[in-house]
Amino acid sequence: MRILFIGDIFGSPGRRIVADHLQDIVKAQGIDLAIANAENSAGGFGVTPAIAEDLFGLGLDVLTSGNHIWDKREIYDYLGRTPRLLRPHNYPPGSPGSGCVIVKQCAILNLQGRTYMPNTDCPFRAADQLLAELAPAVKVRFVDFHAEVTSEKIAMGWYLDGRVSAVIGTHTHVPRTAERRQPSAGIRFRAIEMDDPASRDFTNKASRSGPWRQRRVRSPAKLAAPTSATWRRSLNQATRFAGGV
């Protein structure tokens, strides 16, 4: 399955870009499923029912969101009757809408981080719950993790390694490069932002589990320093990136 994901659509300029280019990309790349984060599509703050319908009409199959989903009050009822518009699933029970939908045999999950973000339930436990409820026949599982800091997104990528197909980080509105293929089951992690070179790799399973363990159970975890080989590899990657700018 070929999936197109578009990072946070911002206001009318962002919607115009989608309108002008989406169908060309879908046809040229043979896209099977088109997803976009639409939480800023209404003037930069939230999304309205009319704008959501326009985006669906342009050919987007699913709209994800984040903390700005609540900025337009008219979206509350619409969330409840439009399963293809997601809000982060780890908002408290009773919040309108849902954070998971299955479209074209792909499960799309929407979660929100907690570092420098509004107070929400644990996204790691919410991910566990959603994945446990999915039928085994649903093999493709795509996650939009809407969070502030890259480290939390990387922690989620390691936590879901082997259980989902891709983890995409959104929210920062800054184009950055933080892409990697995880070792188990070919999971791909991509943050629409840049991380520091030291965070691009961990040397062993114990050091990888530390960051997500800190966030999931709120207990201290000693993090292992990267090896000199890791630092050299990260420095080389950073140097190649800087040289291409």
Describe this structure in words.
The chain is of the alpha/beta class and 245 residues long. The protein has a single domain, classed as Purple Acid Phosphatase, chain A, domain 2. It is 35% helix and 18% strand. The protein is built from seven helices and nine strands, in the order E-H-E-H-E-H-E-E-H-E-H-E-E-E-H-H. The protein has helices at 11-29, 49-57, 75-81, 123-133, 150-159, 205-217, 228-243, and strands spanning 3-6, 33-37, 62-64, 100-103, 106-112, 140-146, 166-170, 178-181, 188-191. It has a six-stranded mixed beta sheet with strand order 4-5-6-7-9-8, with helices on one face. Strands 1-2-3 form a three-stranded parallel beta sheet, covered by helices on one side. Strand 2, helix 2 and strand 3 (62-64) form a beta-alpha-beta unit. Helix 5 packs across helix 6 (205-217). The longest helix is centred in the N-terminal third of the chain and has 19 residues, at 11-29. The two termini are 32 Å apart. Residues 192-207 and 237-245 have low confidence and may be disordered.
